[in-house]
Design brief:
Number of domains: 1
Number of strands: 0
Helix content: over 70%
Structural class: mainly alpha
Largest sheet: none
Radius of gyration: 15 Å
Length: 137
C-alpha cells in the first residue's frame, strides 16, 4: 500500500466514523428529547449544544480508524460492526463515565440499563460507519 492509498483510507474511515457519530449524536438527542431514555430508566437527556455535539463527531471519527484494522475482513459488516462497537463502548463505560463525568464505572448512577443503552448507541454508530465505508469505499 502506497502513501496515497493509506491517506485515502484514513480519510474515508475518519469521514465514515464522523458520519456515524453525527447520526448517533442526533439519535441520542432524540431519545432524550422524546423520553425514550426515561422508558429504559436511563437518566440521559443530552443538551444539544456545540460543547456536547462536536466531541461526539470527533470521537466518532477517531473510532472510525478501527475499520482500517485487518480484523474480521471478509466477514459481514454486521459482525465487524458488533466487534468494533465494543472498543468505544468499553471506553465510554470504563473511562468516560467514571473519570470524565464522575458517574462511576458503567454509568450505573444513570440507571441500570445505561451500559445496554451505550452499547446500542455504539452499535448503531458502527453499523452506520460500516455502511458508509461500503457505499463510499
Amino acid at each position: 500500500m502506497n502513501l496515497n492509498d493509506f491517506l485515502r483510507r484514513m480519510s474515508l474511515t475518519y469521514a465514515a466514523g464522523t458520519f456515524g457519530g453525527l447520526c448517533v449524536a442526533f439519535l441520542s438527542f432524540v431519545a432524550g428529547e422524546y423520553r425514550w431514555t426515561d422508558k429504559m430508566h436511563v437518566a440521559m437527556h443530552p443538551d444539544f449544544s456545540a460543547t456536547w455535539f462536536f466531541p461526539r463527531l470527533v470521537i466518532g471519527g477517531i473510532c472510525g480508524f478501527l475499520f482500517i484494522l485487518p480484523i474480521a475482513k471478509g466477514k459481514p459488516f454486521i459482525e465487524r460492526a458488533l466487534l468494533f462497537c465494543l472498543v468505544p463502548t468499553l471506553i465510554h463505560l470504563l473511562y468516560i463515565f467514571p473519570f470524565r463525568e464522575h458517574l462511576g464505572y458503567f454509568g450505573f448512577q444513570l440507571g441500570a440499563l445505561t451500559p445496554l443503552y451505550i452499547f446500542i448507541l455504539y452499535f448503531v454508530w458502527a453499523v452506520l460507519t460500516a455502511i458508509w465505508l461500503k457505499i463510499v469505499g
